């Protein structure tokens, strides 16, 4: 199975570490006189790492120097750039993640139809920017780890936990040429909810009914639901928004974007967390990453409110990506939009921004014509 | 770009940090908390290279808490500062040094308030007042002029922040301010330039 091979599961079923990808001379199980065995040391392998009891205790960082000195820098065949525009923000109706679809290599558009928004599980997507290869690899590695966590613990890891896990996975490669800047956009389920297959929950109020034991016993298919375009019925949406706004208003005194940012420390609800290969890990309400991000910030900072309706949030995100692709040479082609609610993620159809541009140009042309006709 | 300041008063320590998390020219977050609570009476303020700050500070934080679990009593601020310095020094000459600048502030029931300055070369100094960052160039002289041991009552706090607003080319609009005394850590009113607009749910400011 491809995933098994990727995990090198057959060779080392109980070990996970980036160092397992290195040649075997770095086997930490063999005693090396130079490495002190401190239980609490941050970067040396814990003595307990030989026990096969599930989650990798040696997440406390394998020797980072190994990665940096053993992997010689390979000469790049062509210049890699970080051309992209991705964004993610929270609002009363959930989380919006949007991205363009262009992959550039120097001045060449290597692929005009890339998927930069990658699902990790039913309630979490990752928008990727940086080096395309690295992003695909690390998103897949994260998916693997989250799936393993769910199999071991019977519940899905929170978005904050996922971000921390990802930051620790990336840490040994700090200082090397790994370049990823991922924005995790997801919805944390409360204790009563659980990750579900599919987003097509008929009953809006089902989250309260599913008990924790049900979530544990049910062996869920771990592949996330295929996205589909939904325009949920108005009643469902209003029910969703009222429940989420009531939960958020109960958790914070003033607005959910208040200074003490209680919404970000709340257990449940929408979350956006930025993780990059430098090691930065930031939780917030709005992030835009990539070469087109300053242009996107201009649109988003002007229009973003907590109280946006879902359609307004869609149009804001599309507008931001559209304006960024217009100005930034390394972003373009289409815009992908994914929104995440309590029920999971779902994807809107990909929209071609070229059409958008020409449609708008026509409209502006018409307005100008009207004005000229009136003044004549 | 980042700014930390600490001032030791007669029975408290006042610390402040700017709350911007930046990535090249963009402010990714403007309400980022750079203070880490090591225990009920000790705060670690940490700035420096992007990933190193949180990794190192959380590592120290967890180890201080582990000490309390193992031994039943907490590390004093002096002991915590020396532990931090030792770890920083150990990694300094490895292939992966942590590039972080720290202030450690705490209140010891026996010894009173303490403020420690530590830099990325793991120099440690106990000081009555200290600052990190470019803003330090502007504010240390004010502290030199007006500080008297046992005499900092906090009235001159406004002048410190106003000199940054007036003279520092980079805009630092918001700070987290906390005070540590014998009762523990207290959040003081966060200093925001446009707090009233944010309270309306409008986070453009």
TrEMBL record, chain A:
Residues 232-264 have a biased composition (Low complexity). This is Proteasome endopeptidase complex. Residues 20-57, 222-264 are annotated as: Disordered. It is found in: Nucleus. It comes from Gadus morhua (Atlantic cod). Residues 44-55 have a biased composition (Basic and acidic residues). One of its GO terms (biological process) is proteolysis involved in protein catabolic process. It holds the Pfam family Proteasome. It comes from the Eukaryota. Keywords: Cytoplasm, Proteasome. The keyword Transmembrane helix does not apply. GO terms for cellular component: cytoplasm; nucleus; proteasome core complex. The keyword Cytoplasm applies.
From TrEMBL, chain B:
The keyword Cell inner membrane does not apply. InterPro entries: Ntn_hydrolases_N, Proteasome_beta2, Proteasome_bsu_CS, Proteasome_sua/b, Proteasome_suB-type. GO terms for biological process: proteasomal protein catabolic process. GO terms for cellular component: cytoplasm; nucleus; proteasome core complex. Component of the proteasome complex. Component of the proteasome, a multicatalytic proteinase complex which is characterized by its ability to cleave peptides with Arg, Phe, Tyr, Leu, and Glu adjacent to the leaving group at neutral or slightly basic pH. The proteasome has an ATP-dependent proteolytic activity. Belongs to the peptidase T1B family. This is Proteasome subunit beta. It comes from Gadus morhua. The gene is PSMB2.
